[in-house]
Design brief:
The complex is a heterodimer of chains A (81) and B (406). In chain A, 62% of the residues lie in helices and 0% in strands. With 81 residues, chain A is an all-alpha fold. With 406 residues, chain B is α/β, with parallel strands linked by helices. In chain B, helix 8 crosses helix 14. Chain B starts with a strand and ends with a strand. Chains A and B meet through helix 2 of A and loops of B.
Chain lengths: 81, 406
């Protein structure tokens, strides 16, 4: 499942933030490597919520630092559902 | 007294986004108004034609800035980019403490606002809304976004007075420089097209009816068969500088703003007052220390509404008599609302510098209820020393700008 979720996250980041797919890997920091700021982070979470149909608690946002963190959060939510 | 000069312009309009195309459209009397196939699914609209800027790719603006911009801010941003490039101002001069900005629009980011309201009401509630939506639709979205994109740290004066939003922005810039608060002001405004505007003005009986199948003939300022305005979009940006500042850096000076006035009718929320219009023109002339006969061309507001054109013509007649050439270019563009004042000031500047006075498009039979004026019927090659651009907005807000050769 990890690969499938990663590919979707990658697709959203590429489309929303005009990045190249090759720039995005599990270990990349959203802020330091991909250059996202706080507004971008909220918009990314919003896009993921729309894609997956569940709500990220606000405090969850502060525990997300890398692409891998997002993939992990999504997998945990998918498994719960 | 500090003098205020124009050193750069940029614009988007339904009849061109550069001076050559603009002049060509005006010479050939080509309108940028067309039937809106895009609105076919909208119920209840009377007016189904609009003035459209045929540009949709704004990727020239870096994403970091574009993410918080609606169409209106993007058109203004690229207009200003061109104006700054023409002025030759460098990054350090733009980011100086005494460089400011004043930009406006009637509606803010209407497209984003409409989508946001629709999504909140019918789909997602507030659970899944982008953090950037408000920044795209807020009323001062243009001034705020442009200040960030261009790195302006001086005064920022957003304007939002509908049809005078960008003429008041020019005025705010002019006064900021004249009275010593700024050396440079980046000024202008715009409007993005949305069918909501057509619906709003339909509801007030202000849009032209009977021309959905003849868009070129729809906007008819001062003509007896005019039936209302045509909604449109566009933007205008000007770089204003204090004269000595511009001269010291060797800038090419396009013209000097010598007079500006703004006033208010204080009488009716939509019905214009000839007294208020007359007063603002007299105030601008007094500010410029010019007499009416010094003005060689008047760019009228005239939106082709049944009453507005009459009141405006009477006010002009009171101030100027019947000998000053006058035209409204809304016959070509429709009503650009927040973009109109700046764009029409740029057209007025063109009249001054190219000795080219545009004609009133679709003026076949002058409405006898309009005052006797020198309505321009076909464009003229006439040298003029000073021009006046007038704009009037709902709420009885009036502006008059006078530009002179230096």
């Amino acid at each position: 499942m990890s690969s499938e979720v990663f590919e979707k996250v990658q697709e959203i980041i590429v489309e929303q933030f005009e990045k190249e797919p090759s720039e995005i890997s599990m270990d990349k920091s959203l802020v330091e490597d991909l250059g996202l700021d706080s507004l971008d982070m909220f918009d990314l979470i919003c896009a993921l919520e729309k894609e997956y149909g569940f709500h990220f608690e606000r405090e969850m946002g502060s525990s997300i630092a890398t692409v891998g963190d997002i993939v992990g959060q999504l997998e945990r939510n998918i498994n719960k559902a | 007294m500090r003098r205020v000069v124009i050193t750069g312009t940029g614009f988007y309009s339904p009849i061109g986004d550069n001076m050559a195309d603009l002049r060509s459209s005006l010479e050939q009397m080509k309108s940028g108004i067309r039937f809106m196939n895009e609105w076919s699914g909208v119920n209840g609209l009377d007016a189904r034609i609009a003035g459209v800027v045929p540009v949709s790719d704004f990727s020239e603006i870096p994403r970091a800035y574009r993410r918080t911009m609606d169409r209106v801010a993007m058109m203004c941003a690229l207009s200003l980019k061109r104006a700054v490039a023409q002025s030759g101002l460098d990054v350090a001069q733009i980011s100086a403490h005494k460089t400011g900005i004043s930009f406006g629009s009637a509606m803010g980011g209407l497209e984003t606002l409409f989508e946001y309201a629709e999504d909140v009401s019918h789909n997602s509630g507030f659970g899944r809304q982008n953090a950037t939506a408000f920044l795209r639709f807020m009323s001062h979205t243009v001034a705020a976004n442009l200040a960030v994109m261009f790195g302006v740290i001086g005064r920022n004066i957003p304007t939002s007075s509908a049809c005078t939003a960008s003429s008041q922005a020019i005025g705010a810039g002019y006064e900021s420089i004249k009275y010593g608060m700024s050396d440079v002001m980046l000024v202008g405004g715009g409007e993005g097209l949305h069918y909501v505007e057509a619906g709003i003005f339909d509801s007030m009986g202000a849009t032209a009816i009977g021309f959905n199948d003849n868009a070129q003939a729809a906007s008819r300022p001062f003509d007896i068969s005019r039936s209302g305005l045509i909604v449109s979009e566009g933007s205008g940006a000007l770089v204003l500088e204090e004269y000595e500042y511009a001269k010291a850096r060797g800038a090419v000076i396009l013209g000097e703003i010598v007079g500006y006035a703004t006033g208010c009718d204080g009488s009716h929320i939509t019905l214009p007052s000839e007294r208020g219009m007359e007063q603002v023109m007299r105030d601008a002339l007094a500010d410029a220390k010019l007499n009416p006969e010094d003005i060689g061309y008047i760019n009228a507001h005239a939106t082709a509404t049944p009453k507005g054109d009459i009141f405006e013509s009477i006010a002009v007649h009171h101030v100027f008599g019947h000998n000053t050439p006058i035209s409204s270019i809304k016959g070509y563009t429709g009503h650009m609302f927040g973009g109109g004042g700046a764009f029409e000031s740029i057209v007025s500047l063109m009249a001054l510098n190219e000795s080219f006075l545009p004609a009133n498009k679709n003026l076949e039979t002058i409405d006898p209820a309009c005052a006797p004026l020198d309505y321009i019927r076909s464009h003229r090659e006439t040298k003029v020393k000073a021009v006046m651009n007038n704009n009037f907005a709902f709420g009885g807000i009036n502006t008059s700008i006078i530009i002179k050769k230096i």
